[in-house]
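Methods — Computational structure assignment.
A single polypeptide chain was analysed. Its primary sequence is given first, followed by the predicted tertiary structure written as structure tokens.
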Amino acid sequence: MKIPVYSLIAYSGTGKTTVMVELIKELKKRGLKVAAIKHDAHDFEIDKEGKDSYRMSKAGSDITVVLSSSKCAFIENRFVDINKVLERIEGVDLILSEGYSHGNWKKICIYRKESGNPLKIDESDCFAICTDEKLNTSCIQFDLEDYFGLASFIIKDLKKNLP
């Protein structure tokens, strides 16, 4: 069975990361295993200059793996499609992603009035909306800080889709 994916969608600076971090904490309190994926629109460096893995990547390694008794990190120095990444994740109850608005997964839109931005995606594509202002929509809405309610809604959806 495919692991369900819930993606948090919003414009930069709206609070996606805050909602995601607090949602992860709430889901973990309830015993769920959670994977998190962060989309970065800019080039990023996960490795530190001077470290062996950094030197290996800079030497041309296409994939560098850092492995210890408590962590594992794959550093792929090439484009990897999000669907291929999702296929590699196992042993969790759900995947939360931040910033992937295109894909066949459930989308939780974050709306903050003071940002001046509208919803980033059409409300008909929203699984839920986290907002600091009641919106005129039939989509279920949660207060921006109602992590308990949002987690409960996600868990209810997970249970509905069990075999």
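Note: Helices lie at 16-29, 52-58, 82-88, 147-160.
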